[in-house]
Write a structure and sequence with these properties.
By secondary structure, the protein is α+β, with helices and mostly antiparallel strands. It is about 55% helix and about 15% strand. It has three domains: about 70 residues, lambda repressor-like DNA-binding domains (434 Repressor (Amino-terminal Domain), Orthogonal Bundle), CATH 1.10.260.40; about 60 residues; about 80 residues, no CATH class.
């Protein structure tokens, strides 16, 4: 924005006529007209009067002025000093955003790198099942009678059916998943007898590394770094 346009906008916003505004600043109307049209630029003294009369925020003025206009007003000490302060503050902010962007870039890159380098782990799991508690004097396959087809004489079949019903009442299945192979089966002492855990199946388990989740914060930080660099460049 040009300095003259800035003065005119403030005057029109406050509904001042040029003679009224000139009187408030203690200058001639013709001089104010030249300032507003850009035909002249104020001296240190006149600029101070305008700042006081118009209640100008010099920092805001410095930010809004075109570079060419700021250069034309370089002889005004108060404006030059404020411009230097604003420039240094902008540099500090720009450096701050730049450092924040570098921190995000390093952290995000490390996170993505960790997610790329990790690998999943695989291990075998072995499934064993015990059908129930086996008395000390009973064979390990005592529960197999449940699946036996009764045969023979009616009395023999009735005996087998009775044994099957009795064993069904004792069924108390317990499944164990082991990471180490225990052979075809293993025995475990329990109250009232023992349990025989027979191998049923095995499966390969894939464990995802928790570092894979570093993709999410890593990408977020990389985008954050891009945003910080953009803000730093625009601020500068």
């Amino acid at each position: 924005m040009k300095f003259g346009d800035y003065l005119r906008q403030i005057r029109e916003t406050r509904h001042w006529t040029q003679p009224e505004a000139a009187a408030r600043a203690g200058i001639e109307q013709s001089y104010l007209s030249k300032l507003e049209t850009g035909k002249s630029y104020p001296s240190d003294d006149v600029f101070g009067r305008l700042v006081q009369a118009y209640e100008i925020d010099v920092k805001t003025l410095v930010r809004d002025l075109d570079p060419a206009e700021a250069e034309a007003l370089r002889d005004i000490e108060s404006l030059r000093t404020t411009r230097l302060i604003v420039h240094r503050a902008a540099q500090r902010l720009s450096r701050g955003w730049m450092l924040a962007g570098l921190a995000c870039l390093l952290t995000g890159g490390g996170s993505v790198g960790a997610a790329l380098t990790v690998s999943d782990t695989h291990h075998e799991e072995y499934i064993y099942m015990s059908r129930g508690v086996i008395a000390p004097d009973e064979p390990l396959n005592v529960f197999d009678i449940i699946h036996q087809e009764p045969s023979g004489t009616p009395a023999e079949r009735a005996t087998v059916l009775g044994q099957q019903i009795a064993m069904l009442e004792r069924v108390d299945e317990d499944v164990r998943i082991q990471r180490t192979l225990q052979g075809e089966g293993y025995i475990e002492r329990v109250e009232g007898g023992r349990r025989y855990y027979q191998a049923l199946d095995s499966q390969t388990v894939v464990e995802r590394s928790p570092l894979r989740w570093f993709w999410v914060p890593g990408l977020m930080l990389l985008f954050g770094a891009l945003g910080c660099f953009t803000i730093s460049w625009r601020w500068k």
